[in-house]
Input
Amino acid sequence: MPIRDEVRPVDAPIVELGEGPCWDVASSSLFWTDIPAGRIHRLDPAGRHASWEAGQPVGAIAPRESGGLALAAGDGFHALDTATGALTRLADAGHPQAGLRMNDGACDRAGRFYAGSMAVDERPGAGALYRLDPDGRVSRLVTGVGISNGIGWSPGGAQMYYIDSLAYRLDVFDYDAATGEVGNRRGVVGLGRGDVMPDGLAVDEDGCIWVALWGGWAVHRYRPDGHLADVLPVPAANVTCPAFGGSDLRTLYITTAAGPGEAAGALYSCQPGVAGLPTFPYRG
Output
């Protein structure tokens, strides 16, 4: 499937470190975050912009089934009331050491919120991958992580894709939809080196995985067997995360961060010719 469309900047604020784009089906809105600013952004169906202050770095966003948003932020999980701006704690991640913060994440079909952590100084091996269940319980699933990043599921739900940026690899786990447990981690494809590394990801309806390349000026589309199917150039070096949205899930939104590029830190979009999988809400 050759990509024939080019990415274009969206009319939205330029940010320092854009991340966590998330399409909320219920409100037909796109949410994303500026991590160091602790600010959550939203574009509604009319293209109107709104934002909220979290007071701490926000790594991931998920719609909350009961209303508002669930956030992986600071040292744990929080709920944001988008009507009032009030932030309440859902659960601590239980970081085993100081100097860590939450990073990228996503919810599965059962409404469990998976999100990982990283060291603020980006030292290797300090992070972990966590799961927040709807009942508020937190489980640490993977330890020894460098920079926990992209998370997504195959269309059939039997596999969970995962990126630890400092491992320079897209991995896949066997995933148990009944329990939320993961196992049998293995590499799909190695990518990047040095200052170029994989960041966030999104999965499309064909089962292909779209991976943002920090320092790589592009989003790569991989088949489940690791074959590089397409490359989507982005006019900013530090590409952070793709997400499918729009009423038909056929718009690919892409967040970027400050650095080289004509509009680094901008939110971009394109029509890649394939639909993505829907975003699922946190059910707690």
Observations:
- The chain is about 0% helix and 50% strand.
